[in-house]
Design brief:
With 129 residues, this protein is of the alpha+beta class. It has 2 helices and 6 strands. The strands form 2 sheets. Strands 3, 4, 5 and 6 form a 4-stranded antiparallel β-sheet that branches. A two-stranded antiparallel ribbon has the order 1-2. The longest helix is centred in the C-terminal third of the chain and has 21 residues. It is globular, with a radius of gyration of 19 Å.
Length: 129
């Protein structure tokens, strides 16, 4: 018995003239496009300094809703980088889900979580949220 290998179609979806997103699946499959990085208005929270370094949170707001969150976190020590690389995506998801600075603390990243929430609160105040 001879087997034929499976083939997955790979295409590139171009949004505008600057962004290419790899698309895996059937060529006819619809791919949802999220907000672009330039949608909404950017607000930068105050820098909160914790024991291991500064934390600054940025939020992008459209229609009185946080649509994106980013942060500058300490990574100069290997342990700080390890902790913050794990904590950052969780904190981001928490903010987008809660739409508030009242977010859960990430276990093992208490100081980062507290500093993140403090800077986030400042950014949200600037945005009038």
């Amino acid at each position: 018995m001879q087997r034929t290998p499976s083939v997955i179609a790979v295409a590139t979806l171009t949004v505008g003239s600057q962004l290419a997103v790899p698309a895996v699946g059937l060529a006819t499959a619809a791919i949802p496009v999220a907000h672009t990085a330039t949608t909404g208005k950017l607000y930068v929270g105050g820098t909160t300094t914790m024991k291991w370094g500064p934390v600054t949170v940025r939020i992008r707001v459209a229609n009185h809703k946080i649509i994106n969150v980013g942060a500058t976190l300490p990574t100069h020590r290997n342990r700080s980088k390890e902790i913050n690389d794990r904590a950052a995506p969780t904190l981001r998801r928490e903010v987008l889900a809660a739409q508030s600075w009242h977010i859960n603390t990430v276990s093992g990243a208490t100081m980062t979580s507290d500093a993140y929430a403090s800077s986030l609160r400042s950014a949200m105040a600037k945005a009038g949220l």
